[in-house]
Amino acid sequence: MSLSRGRFPARLSLPDLDPAVLEHYRLLWRGEDLHANLAQFPALTAATLFGRAAPLEIDIGCATGEFIVGLAADHPERRFLGVEISRKPIEHAVAKAVARGLDNIRFLQADMILAAALLAPQTVGAIYIHFPVPFTTTRKRKHYTYAPRLLTIYRNALVTGGRLSFVSDDQRVAAEITQAVTREAGFAPVAEADWQLALSDHLRSPYQRLWAQRKRTIWRAEFERTADMK
Question: How many whole angstroms separate alpha carbon 23 and alpha carbon 36?
Fold first, then answer.
């Protein structure tokens, strides 16, 4: 059966989570509230989420959490945030974190197109945008998580040396991202030999597993936030 991006969340059932546990792990920020009253929301920082100042690592479009939960389990000294707009996938991600007894990860159920404005300067160590939904029209490009406006926000949020990581099975997306990031001052491409992230099997998303099984070409890239803004 095809793992359609559009239908995948609909095929999930909600996991059995204690409401108090869900509240501990998940922030629920509704789009209409973000749009109307952005100033009422706290900054998305490790200090806000965990009470500790540290570079936050963010998975935008975390789906059911295999990747970001795997990273959190491997690096208990670091702090992670998974962002997903759909309820069912994010609750499955929470369930995975609970099953592993992790407390260095939180989840945000929100539209990152709106919530990105709450990223604070120089507070993020890495941003992961893996298998973003491909754009369908030129008009809609500004609404995607790799739109130029958002790349500027990501650049400002990343610490110097922080990484912006992309993975996609769609070559149009790869070309669009490469062009957009290249135009954005403050990012430098990272050679494959120096990639910070190794996607071992336990970190692969359902999409990556499926596309690998089908022998689809997977494109990856990492970009580093540089100090030189010329």
Answer: 23
